[in-house]
Amino acid sequence: MNYSDLFRVTLPETMLEVAALVVLIVDLGFLRKAALKVRVAVAALLGVAGCGVAGAALWAWQASVGAGYSFDDTLLLAQGGYISAAQAGILVMTALTLLLFIDSDFTKHVSEFVAVVLMAASGGLLVAAAQDLLVIFIGLELLSLSLYIMTAFAKTSGKSAEAALKYYLFGGMSAAFLLFGFSYFYGLTGSTNLRSIQDAIVTQGTSPLLYVAWILVVAGLGFKVAAVPFHLWAPDTYEGAPTPAAAFIASVSKVASFALLLTLSANWLTLEPGSISGLVGLASWLTAVDQIWTKLAIVLLLIAAISMVVGNLAALAQTSVRRLLAYSAIAHAGYMLLGVAALPHYSTAIAELHMIPRKLGSVGVSVDAVLYYVLTYGLTTIGAFGVVSVVERATGSDRLDSFLGLHKRSPLLAAVLSVLFLSLAGIPPLVGFWAKFNLFAAVLGVSAGPVPFALVALAIAMSAVSLYYYLQVLKRAYVMPAVDETPIKAHPVTMAVLLAIAAAVVVLGCFPALLQSWIESFYAH
Hints:
Layout: H1 3-9, H2 11-30, H3 36-65, H4 81-101, H5 110-129, H6 133-151, H7 158-189, H8 194-204, H9 208-224, H10 233-240, H11 243-267, H12 278-315, H13 321-341, H14 347-351, H15 356-395, H16 406-409, H17 411-425, H18 431-446, H19 450-478, H20 492-510, H21 513-521
Helix pairs in contact: 2-3, 2-5, 3-4, 3-5, 4-5, 4-11, 4-15, 5-6, 5-11, 6-7, 6-11, 7-8, 7-9, 7-10, 9-12, 10-11, 10-13, 11-13, 11-15, 12-13, 12-19, 13-15, 13-18, 13-19, 15-17, 15-18, 15-20, 17-19, 17-20, 18-20
């Protein structure tokens, strides 16, 4: 193993860890007697600078080696393509979360909180790039343990402590499922490397234990993305966690988890160019993969459908906007899982070998569609939690009635809320519409038949349902009379971040090719 290359490929994670140490040293060593607002601002800005340096390291590595580079045959971490795009998105969302933290006062241990956020982001980068079961588990544990701590950071809040305890208990169970599944894969194949496991499965064929292992892995990762029936932690965590922590969980954690799902589904069960010679070998390989994936896709499609229905219908009954966003996140996880489940479906390609190149190309389109969705969803959700945080600080509650007359109390805040919620509902010309359009089109393009069509139709119907509960919030902001017309003032940095996010949602919606071109730039050598 070339440890020099290993260090270079983990340079973004290293920069985040160095930034965490710098934040602790500066705050605890030089600013201990400074005002809390000064300490919060300095710690947050140092964290943002660390994300910037990590992003520069990521871009420099990408530019120097090209897309899809692997540094040895025992690939532990990969770079390029959707992996680097997901990592860049994680760094941007971490920086936005830290900027929203500037207006927070839920803790006096500001440097510790920022350091934990940076460590969580480092874990997210590892998860997104991991190509080995051990690295995946280490990255997930680093990310998860950091998220548990962040959730419990508001020490004076009983809801924060309750949310952290529930999150931790469910997280421990999911880690056990995941570890059992990984152990079965290792026992079946004798390797922890994803590429080697793929080769062993195709060579040895399937077994009942293989499907048990897959189900355990799906259960473990289903918790990470808050899919039904592994979603029970999400409403309490979104409601009880400090706002920056909730925004981080809803965005960065989802991006990292779905990047891992794309790795397992698109890389584990798709063709490695040049690894199979001749059409006979290719047809045999495709048949083996299709037999495996057809069974697994049924499980993912079932989880996706239930998540869409349960998430949207449960959101209708919520009076807390935080819990509404939690159930909305469950529904959005269902939409994205629909795209993941459709990735490697090759039945048609097996019947007609001349169609294989087109089918393999469609898989790439589906990967980009899922990534496009999760990135835009994460960005929009950070903004939504930012607006909720400002209203909550002004009114003392996140209930729906706290938003009464918001357009009079803060016209800019109400406008930002409208843009973000309508985008989450998928209303054109906002970016949320294109995210759903691309995803549903990719699902229908890759998987033919009545089942994918029915599921896409269900997803569109559930999107219509989601519009109703998003409009319930906007109705209170614009239509219903205000009980208190006292102006709501947001911190200048918070307001600037929220306006920037809303502007990005509008611009990316009017010019959807901008984000797609940015994602595709990570594929270019």
